[in-house]
Specification:
This protein is α/β, with parallel strands linked by helices. It is about 40% helix and about 20% strand. The strands form two sheets. It has a seven-stranded parallel β-sheet, with helices on both faces.
Length: about 250
């Protein structure tokens, strides 16, 4: 059991919620951040029922000032051991040439800018705390490897997250900051639920795809987080065995 502090963005629903609860059960004090207070408060309540310590901060983590609010809250709980950059959003399938600029900006803001800002804030804490160091886990996607049709904003940001992961891993070495990425394929969450009903395929057909329980992702996050800082899962791909990813297209 750990006694450190974890920050989970997008912690009120889906993978973030499952991971925050699992980290709480593993002994972390968990700060969960998100835009909607209702789901955050429900996650805190569910964690408390399990004997875990979760704290909610309503924040838009694509905004630097609100990111600072999240990490100020974490500082009140103790040593920052973990940041899980999980917040993300996608769009319905839209041809590249028809993507509204506002939608592009929104996806970049949530999926990439937020991860950078939270990583930056975590770096500032982790390099100065004693003993120094900590771990950052980024939520990538199988779309960080291969796109779905009509998914340019999401795919571009997830490829960029991979670059951020590599840069963070390299720049963190001097401060004992480890950074890895979990690339998830078809977890059964609100964000991905329509994939089980009908997902557009590269050949133009639409069909449902196999899904996995989000709790499996949460367990993997806890496993990555549990390593000593001299070991790191650089990249993990966790996916439904029969999803059409390997050989996609």
């Amino acid at each position: 059991m750990t006694t450190g502090v974890a920050v989970v963005t997008g912690g009120g629903t889906g993978i973030g919620r499952a991971s925050a609860l699992a980290l709480g059960r593993a002994g972390y004090s968990v700060v969960i951040a998100g835009r909607r207070p209702g789901p955050l408060e429900q996650t805190v309540s569910d964690g408390a029922a399990e004997g875990s310590r979760l704290v909610a901060v309503t924040a838009d983590v694509s905004d630097p000032d609100q990111v600072q609010k999240v990490f100020d809250q974490a500082a009140q709980l103790g040593r920052l051991d973990l940041l899980f950059n999980n917040a993300g959003r996608g769009l319905p399938p839209v041809p590249l040439e028809d993507v509204p600029f506002a939608d592009w900006q929104s996806v970049v803001g949530v999926n990439l800018t937020a991860a950078f800002l939270c990583t930056q804030a975590a770096f500032r804490v982790m390099k100065e705390q004693d003993p120094r160091g900590g771990r950052i886990i980024n939520n990538g996607s199988v779309s960080a490897h291969s796109p779905r049709p009509f998914s340019a904003p999401y795919t571009a940001t997830k490829h960029a997250v991979t670059g951020l992961t590599k840069a963070t891993s390299l720049d963190g070495r001097a401060y004992d900051i480890a950074c890895g990425q979990i690339d998830i394929g078809n977890a059964a969450t609100e964000l991905a639920r329509m994939l089980a009903v009908g997902a557009l395929q590269p050949d133009g057909s639409t069909r449902g795809e196999p899904m996995i329980d989000a709790e499996l992702v949460a367990q993997a996050v806890v496993q990555m987080a549990s390593l000593p800082l001299d070991a790191n899962v650089q990249f993990m791909t966790l996916m439904a065995t029969k999803m059409p990813f390997i050989g996609r297209g």
